[in-house]
């Protein structure tokens, strides 16, 4: 029982370090989850964007909520906010500081997830392959708009019979991957 009390006191006295460690573990877990995920775009014009952006932004929202829930300061801030007025006034500066601190820590894992997905590029290629101007790429110039949209929606699918050896597919894929990686680098520089 004394060991448990000593460990509990250690975590209480070093809660800042423990919270930073938990945020770091969430960030590492997000990278591991993404690398284990076998991303496969549906290659359908109506679903590509929703699927690609969903994979890019839904898990970070869940990671953000986990970061908020796991942060011990969330409960302290909530108790301070709900505390009756009494003789001591509520200090909004303290509540703002705690809120900023909580948000900052909770954003680590989602930011890592988004940077990793952007640097990988698969999600952005899936989401925006149908939005590319077909006139910029030679292989789509002679097709009708409907045909071009159908072919562009199949750009993320390397195994597709229609797009397997297409140089235009590779060009669109490289174009979108470059934009994705530029966004990932800029976001990582802003976050760092």
Automatic annotation (TrEMBL):
User: Where found in the cell?
Assistant: Membrane
- Protein family (similarity comment): Belongs to the CALHM family.
Instruction: Write out the transmembrane intervals.
Output: 49-71, 92-116
Q: Which InterPro entries does this UniProt record tie to the protein?
A: CALHM (IPR029569)
Molecular function terms, GO-annotated: monoatomic cation channel activity
Q: Which UniProt keywords apply?
A: Ion channel, Ion transport, Membrane, Transmembrane, Transmembrane helix, Transport
This protein's membrane topology, according to the annotation, is:
Multi-pass membrane protein
Q: Does the keyword Transmembrane apply?
A: yes
Q: Under what name is this protein listed?
A: Calcium homeostasis modulator 3
The alphabetized list of GO BP terms reads: ATP export
Q: Which GO terms describe its cellular component?
A: plasma membrane
Q: Which organism is it from?
A: Bambusicola thoracicus
């Amino acid at each position: 029982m004394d060991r448990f009390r000593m460990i509990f006191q250690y975590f209480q006295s070093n809660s800042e370090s423990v919270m930073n460690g938990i945020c770091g573990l969430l960030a590492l877990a997000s990278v591991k989850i993404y690398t284990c995920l076998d991303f496969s775009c549906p290659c359908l014009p109506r679903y590509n964007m929703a699927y690609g952006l969903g994979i890019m932004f839904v898990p970070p929202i869940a990671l953000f909520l986990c970061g908020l829930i796991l942060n011990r300061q969330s409960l302290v801030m909530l108790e301070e906010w709900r505390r009756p007025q009494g003789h001591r006034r509520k200090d909004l500066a303290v509540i703002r500081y705690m809120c900023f601190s909580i948000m900052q820590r909770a954003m680590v894992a989602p930011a890592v997830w988004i940077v990793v997905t952007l640097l990988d590029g698969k999600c952005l290629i899936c989401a925006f392959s149908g939005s590319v101007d077909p006139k910029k790429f030679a292989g789509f110039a002679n097709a009708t708009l409907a045909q071009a949209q159908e072919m562009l929606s199949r750009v993320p699918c390397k195994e597709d019979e229609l797009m397997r050896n297409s140089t235009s597919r590779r060009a669109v894929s490289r174009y979108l991957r470059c934009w994705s990686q530029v966004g990932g680098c800029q976001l990582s520089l802003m976050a760092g």
